[in-house]
Amino acid sequence: MGYGMSRLEDEYSEHEGQSSDGLSSAQMNNEFSKLHNDIFHMTHLRSGPSESIRKSIGINKHAVSVTRLLRGREVNSSGTGKFFSVDRAFILGHYLPVDGPEIVDRMNSRAYVSQFSADGSLFVAGFQGSHIRIYDVDKGWEVHKDIHARSLRWTISDVSLSPDQRFLVYASLAPIIHIVNVGTASKESYANVTDIHDGLDFSQHEDVRYSFGLFSVKFSTDGRELVAGSNDDSIYVYDLQADKLTLRLPAHTSDVNTVAFADETGNLIYSGSDDNLCKVWDRRCLSTGEPAGVLTGHLHGITHIDSRGDGRCFISNGKDQAIKMWDIRKMTSNADGSENRVPAWDYTNSRYPQQYKQQKHPHDQSLATYRGHSVLRTLIRCYFSPTYSTGQKYIYTGSYDASICIYDVVSGSQVAKLHKGHELAVRDCSWHPFDPMLVSSSWDGRIAKWSRTCSEQDTCELD
C-alpha cells in the first residue's frame, strides 16, 4: 500500500551519512568510474562546457568566471551571438538552488504533491485536506487558484497540469479523476459550485469488478490522454477527446504506484510497482497483454518514476532506500520480482532494516544506484534536473528525514542536502525549468522555496 496512516505529529529522524548502504564517497565514486554507457557520456556532453570554451580557456586552466563567459558571448565567440545550449547548462548547472529556504505557504494539512508548469510561470501543490493551490510564480507567488477537491478519499494522491496549462487533473484513492479548467475567473474553485470538476470514471472498463484507488496520473505531451496507475495492479489510459477509457492493463502483481510516458510520442509507458519491478509497455503491440520488457534491481517496492524524455532512460525511487537509473535497452522479456528478494517489511511503521542495506539484487539491470535519502511511510518522488539549465546532470529527491537530496548523475556523489526548511517528510519537490529555484512540499504543510543568486565573482569548475 502506498500511504501511511500514522499521525502527522509522529516524527522520524534518520541519523546517517551520505550513503545509507554503508559505502564511503570514495567507494561510490570508484563504482561509478567503472560505468560505461552512452547515457552518462551524453549527460556529460549536454551539461557542457563546449569545446570552444575549453579551447578559449586553455588546457591548464581549471576554472572560468561567469563574467568572462558573458564577455565571450558579447564578442560573439560562438558565432551565434548567444551561448551554446551546453554552455548555458554548464554555467547554470553550477548554481544549485541551496540558499534559503523561503516559506511560500503553510497549510494545516500534509502537502503530498507539487510541480512547476512547463514554462515555470505556475506552481501547483496538493494537500491532504482537500486543497490544491496554484501559485502565480511571476506575481510574487500569489494564489492564482484555490481548488477545493471533490469526493476526496484520504488525500490528493497526484495532480497533473495539461501542457497548455488550461486544465488540471487530480486523483485520490478512488477510481474517479477530476478535471478542472484553471483559466476561469474565479480564484476559489468549489466543485460544481463556482467551477465544474468533471469526473472521469476509470472503472468503466468491462474487466473492473470492484472499486480501487489511483496513485499516479500524468498528461500525455499532446494533452490528449491521461495515463494512471492504481492499487488494483493495473495501468489505465483515458482518451480526453473521446471522453472514454481506452485501455486497462493488468500490469503488475501488486499496487502500481507510478506511471510515466517515456517521451513525446506517447507510445511507450513506464510503470513501477510494489512487486519491485519496473516495466516498459509499447502501446503499438499490446495484443498479448505482455510488457515490452522488464527491469529488475530494486529489492522493495517502487515509489516513483521519472523519464529522461528520450524514450530510453528513466529513474525510479524505491522502498529499498535507493534511486536507480535504467536504460531500457537492457530490459529482458520477463522477470520474477520475488526471486532472491529480501524479506518483506512494513515501510509505513519502521525504519529500513540495517541488514538489508548491504544486499544487492543478483540480477540488477540498473545502470547506477544513488543512496543517501530516506523512503518511508509515503511514496517519495525523484526527478531529473531540468534540461535547459543543467543538461539533466543531476537527480533530486525528497526524503523522509525532512530533507531534499541532489545527486550528480555521472559521479553518483550527493552534491547537496537541503535540510533546514521542513520538520517532517518531504514527499515531493520540483526544480524550476529555467531558473536555479527548487520548491519542496512536506508533511509539515509547508511549501518552501530554495534558490541561488549568482555573483560576478562566481567561477565554474571544468571537469
From TrEMBL:
Keywords: Phosphoprotein, Repeat, WD repeat. WD repeats lie at residues 214-248, 249-282, 295-336, 419-451. GO terms for cellular component: Cul4-RING E3 ubiquitin ligase complex. Residues 7-18 have a biased composition (Basic and acidic residues). GO terms for biological process: proteasome-mediated ubiquitin-dependent protein catabolic process. Residues 1-26 are annotated as: Disordered. SUPFAM superfamilies: WD40 repeat-like. Belongs to the WD repeat LEC14B family. This is LEC14B homolog. It comes from Brachypodium distachyon (Purple false brome).
